[in-house]
Amino acid sequence: MCVILNLLIMKKILFSTMALMAFGFMNAQENANVPITNNGFKQGDVFMTGSIGIGSESTGDNKTNSFNVKPKAAYFLTENIAVGAALGFMSGKTEVPLAPDVKTTEFSVGVFGRYYFTPGSTFSVFGELGVDYIHSKQEALTEDTSNAFRIGLAPGVNYFVSQHFALEATFGVLSYRTNNPSTDGVDNTDNFNLGLNFTDINLGLIYRF
Fold first, then answer.
1. What is the maximum span of the chain, computed from C-alpha positions, in angstroms?
2. 26: part of which helix (H) or strand (E)?
3. HSE of 62 in the Cβ direction (CA atoms, 13 Å)?
4. How far apart are CA 148 and CA 135, in angstroms?
5. Fewer Cβ neighbours under 10 Å: the N or C end of the chain?
6. For the chain, how many structural domains are there in total?
7. Which DSSP string do the residues of 50-99 spell out, in sequence order?
8. What is the pTM of this model?
9. Which of 67, 56, 68, 69 is nearest to 95 (CA)?
10. Which domain holds residue 68?
11. Where does residue 143 fall: left (phi above 0), alpha (psi -120 to 50 degrees), or beta otherwise?
12. Residue 121 per-residue DSSP state
């Protein structure tokens, strides 16, 4: 029941955001000949963005709760290209009857680059390529750690609602991750993901300085 409720809430937020951005796009098209002076990006701009996620899943008596946050900051090297850095933190706990709780924490640091197709407009589409280093720890009866590298490519959109604030949505499409466990005798794991699901959709808010 909780899973269904969470999916419905996520769908409502996603569709509402996309509807707002679509309205902004149509409005921008209607006013294409009107100079935009307040909204949009330009060379030399600095912005901060990020995402926060809270999840809860129940299957019978098994329960999983998670929390994640990933702030980002970037600088426009040119009119269309922005480069920046990102930090990340994830914490999760799985509760299973008659078994120890499984706690997972994950820290990440990375760099990313974006190409904006119409940076000076209120509405813009962009592509993002990012590389992250990830350190993970899992605690149950024993404690296991691992290190990983992740490469991800994702398209996104942003819509300025004021001179400094914009809504943002990114959609994960292509990613590759290689995981190196610290436990002796455990092989590395390579994961390639191509597709789109709710865990790959991130909604955020941009602040332009």
1. 67
2. helix 2-30
3. 6
4. 7
5. N
6. 1
7. EEEEEEEEEETTEEEEEEEEEEEEEEESSSSEEEEEEEEEEEEEEE-TTS
8. 0.71
9. 56
10. 2-34+43-208
11. beta
12. S
Torsion angle of the four alpha carbons 17, 156, 69, 164, in this order, in degrees rounded to the nearest 10: -70
Give the position of tokens 């280093």: 133
What letter represents residue 166's amino acid?
A
The position carrying tokens 């679509």 is: 22
Whose tokens are 């590298």? That residue is: 149
CATH code at 24?
A: 2.40.160.20
Chain position carrying tokens 């466990």 = 181
Rounded to a whole number of angstroms, the CA Rg of the chain reads 20
Digit-coded pLDDT (tens) for 74-107: 999 999 999 999 999 999 998 888 888 889 999 9
Contacts of 190 by beta carbon, 8 Å cutoff, 6+ apart: 176, 177, 178, 179
